[in-house]
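Bench log, entry 3. Co-assembly request; chain sequences pasted below exactly as received.
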Amino acid sequence: VAVLDGEEHSPRSLDRVVFFADAVFAIAITLLVVQITVPQVADSGLRHALGEQGWQFFSFALSFAVIGNWWIAHHRVFNHVVRVNERFLWLNLLFLMSIAFLPFPTAVLGKYSSTATATILYAGSLSAVGLIAGAIWIYASSGHRLISADVDERHIRYFRLRSFIVPLVFLTSIPLALVDPSTAQYWWGLVIPLIVLVTRRHSDA
Amino acid sequence: VAVLDGEEHSPRSLDRVVFFADAVFAIAITLLVVQITVPQVADSGLRHALGEQGWQFFSFALSFAVIGNWWIAHHRVFNHVVRVNERFLWLNLLFLMSIAFLPFPTAVLGKYSSTATATILYAGSLSAVGLIAGAIWIYASSGHRLISADVDERHIRYFRLRSFIVPLVFLTSIPLALVDPSTAQYWWGLVIPLIVLVTRRHSDA
Amino acid sequence: VAVLDGEEHSPRSLDRVVFFADAVFAIAITLLVVQITVPQVADSGLRHALGEQGWQFFSFALSFAVIGNWWIAHHRVFNHVVRVNERFLWLNLLFLMSIAFLPFPTAVLGKYSSTATATILYAGSLSAVGLIAGAIWIYASSGHRLISADVDERHIRYFRLRSFIVPLVFLTSIPLALVDPSTAQYWWGLVIPLIVLVTRRHSDA
Amino acid sequence: VAVLDGEEHSPRSLDRVVFFADAVFAIAITLLVVQITVPQVADSGLRHALGEQGWQFFSFALSFAVIGNWWIAHHRVFNHVVRVNERFLWLNLLFLMSIAFLPFPTAVLGKYSSTATATILYAGSLSAVGLIAGAIWIYASSGHRLISADVDERHIRYFRLRSFIVPLVFLTSIPLALVDPSTAQYWWGLVIPLIVLVTRRHSDA
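Structure output for the full assembly:
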């Protein structure tokens, strides 16, 4: 498809790309609630039934935070992007596909939280999101292909480093999940201190 | 996450935040209808089956009005916001999570309208929306952190007061629901005269 | 709520209102497909099962055309609106509620096409959309309250006339449906020649 | 409806049309995931159940790519459109209807992948999208009716040619599907080399 790569797009194009991504994010994040099933029980059993759905609520909140985080990250990257080409549109679509897919592993994890399979499906899906996000940034920033000339090398490296935290944590959780799924799920919590660490080093330098 | 709080965002950022919120509101409000189940009966039983769904229609309309009201409120607040930072983005996401969650308690209330559990779930969810909305306004308006310098103190106080009407009414309905769910549901009606009262006092002053 | 009616909104407000409405329309129109059920049969029975869903496809297409038509009408009205107030925001929300509700009567009609109940539910829902749309135009155009001073009286009257075609046809179909549902459904077809007639008289004058 | 065709629309109109289309695309593409069913099995059967859903994942990815491709194509066309009229709005709605319908044949193909019926339903649906897209371009570009005067004839012809690749491949796959569904599905792969070929000839000329 190298042949498709030539044409540069107009400013309206960039707005549409940003808009389209925002809409996919908004829909994926709002669809998460549809996966929480309304209990089908007698009136007196409702409280107990809701109690049993604890994991569904937790995985709703977790995936909301995760998708929200990627939305903010997309935001941060696109603040620097000044032009798009067709290959970039396709990379962006691939990224959105990985985002739009997330309600499914979320629902599976909500229902089968104690299994290795559901844990690995979730970890694998999030790693895919992270790897594609990293690839987009590398593509856009290499030789300032699509980003503003103002962005300095240090900032580019910081974004690269930051993009690989999520795949790193989630991929390494996969072997853990084979041994014990709930250990793997605690492991995911590492994402937060690692991001704080990388961000702080960047701010200090 | 104090370390994330430094960076100020560009005007396009603010537009994207507003847009993203609008999209989440639009989707949550439109998804409410999906929770109304299509009856599975013989042709002759359809009229009766629809009649039995009365509460589903009522809770659809109620939640539409509630989400619509929050959308208008969000609107009103963002008319004064002139810059955003990362902490504000996260508060905004938390607010949107509470909005996106509403179709679930709506569906539960539609199906189990006479139970204390469904009434409390609904009241609790709406209180959470209101408390987060109040927190956002306090964060954005303290020392004019993110809002325009034009907004005067009296207006800031009015918005603060107004944000706490919904949590006040809905939190106080929770003990009532334990005694009698339908009394608690009538109690919710207090929101309207209280808002009119607060708004009138503000306009008169 | 007269007290809420004072404040005029900024241009960004109008953009958000238009945007929000477009999003609700887009979601309602796209959700229609979710109501078409995927058959659960043996492989060999698929063709027959799809054949039996004929009415579901028809009501999908009908409602798509209907919602699309209202979107174009909303478009046409908002081309003339130059300011909004809080009462108008609520009227607009009421209108959007009637639009967002449409996937439900569509699904019921798709499943119970030969019943008077489903036919009346559909006709009543569309009449409600039309009456609210008419009310919005009357509110916005009276004394040029919210519309541009450029719009002449003849154009205002034409839009008023036009808004009442849908409620007229659909309300009159309700007594017909009690006698024979399919006659009522053919009656709906009157909408098209009536709109052409009114539009032509307006263009000629 | 020729009578409706007179009025030209303002720039805001064009923005709304583009926006509305983007929203429908975003929703249709994100709804695809809702069609992937969460397995209802014992914990130990989850891995096997997910394995059996292979075709659902494949048809999710395929339809994501297909809708994404049409979004990019819509993009490309609308970069040249400078005005809209009511007939064009309706053609655009018809196009969006064919897009919004796609989650249904996708779900059917995901569930009944080995049947001729599902294969033909999918091929027919995609052909319809392609034919309508072609018709829109012909309508907009004839005599530069709605497109910028800058667009040269060679570019117009290239877009016409390109629009008919998808219908050509998918319509010719229908007789193949009657003989052997999986051959028809491989046949669809022809789309990619044909697009590359047409694009390359256009770039070289």
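The longest helix of chain D spans residues 116-141. Chain D touches chain A at residues 18-19, 22-23, 25-27, 29-34, 36, 38-39, 43, 46-47, 50, 60-61, 64-65, 68, 71-72, 75, 79, 196, 199-200, 203 (CB under 8 Å).
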